[in-house]
Amino acid sequence: MYVSEEENIFIQHALQGGEYRLDRYYLDGYALINGVPTAFEFNGCFYHWCPHCYKPHEFNRLQGTTFEHLHRRNVVKVQYTESSSFAFRTLWEHERLVELTKDAELGTFIKSLQLPAPLEPRNTLFGGCTNATQLYRVAGEGENIHYYDFTSLYPFVNKVKLYPVGHPRIIYRNFKSLDEYFGLFKCQIHCPWKLYCPVLPYRVEDKLMFPLCRTCTESKQTSECRQSDEERLLEGTWCTIEVQTAIEKGYHFCKILKIGTFHTPQPNSFLSTSACFSETNRRHGGILTGASINHRSKSTWLLTMLARVLR
């Protein structure tokens, strides 16, 4: 990052576009400088064997081999990269540590970095959500209570909704509009004061909740919320489509931390599988069978189902 700022060049790395892959190798950094592909490697002395810090015959217990063998592996990578018409720039760990003691500007830059923690896709998975907004009700005069259910919701989503494909591009700065991303979204977000059905799930003590105030939820406060905006905000990782809905309902960003976006969302990823089992389900449910169903009834049912899918 410091080299990128100092030389005013764009370097692709783990936090900016992901590590560049050169056949079987991944490069710590990659840049196209004056038309020349350039590889950047930061070599930890312990992991790559630095002759200034370790003896070649010493055994690296963590890597399970000698430092000399680690050095040979590193040399092979350098030679392969250079044979692929790449320029190769290496910085050793001990060299950078010496620079930190001498270069005040470098030290200031390192201290100013605020790097977010890695995105964890598992943190966006909260499981099935169920809730009773009213536990008991007696129907009043002229009032009927109806049961409303979603039939085969998961197969429907598999059949018609978008799914991410491949590896995400990681973005941690220079964010664009939320609509331009599809994937994972890590942020701090302010909740609206009044929303009957909150949007964003939040886990507290291994319990799934949908709060409008972090502090009230964590402290199990049941009285009226009087927390500040800072005390109410949520921090977490959600899917971009969840965050988009939240924004529509009155949430607003405090700070965007990191985004993992997929280039080409794939529609109809499970179309054939879902169609096959949906048909089986309908037939066993008796909807498309039975002597009492005539051609007109079947056509009406098919048009209704098609309208729901295309809605």
How would you sum up this structure, described in words?
- The protein has 311 residues and is α+β, with helices and mostly antiparallel strands.
- It has 3 domains: 2-112, no CATH class; 163-261, no CATH class; 270-311, no CATH class.
- The chain has 11 helices and 15 strands.
- It has helices at residues 2-7, 45-48, 67-83, 93-102, 104-112, 153-160, 214-219, 229-232, 240-248, 271-284, 295-310, and strands at 20-22, 25-27, 29-33, 36-43, 59-60, 65-66, 87-92, 162-163, 169-171, 183-190, 202-204, 207-209, 234-239, 252-261, 266-267.
- It has a 4-stranded antiparallel beta sheet.
- A hairpin with a 4-residue loop joins β5 (59-60) and β6.
- α6 (153-160) runs antiparallel to α10.
- The two termini are 47 Å apart.
- The mean pLDDT is 84.
- It comes from Pleurodeles waltl.
As laid out across the biggest beta sheet, the strand order is 9-14-10-13
Helix count, DSSP H or I runs of 4 or more residues = 11
Low-confidence stretches: none
Characterize the overall form.
Answer: extended
Family: Belongs to the DNA polymerase type-B family.
Enzyme class: transferase
GO biological process, one term: DNA replication
InterPro entries: DNA-dir_DNA_pol_B_mt/vir, DNA/RNA_pol_sf
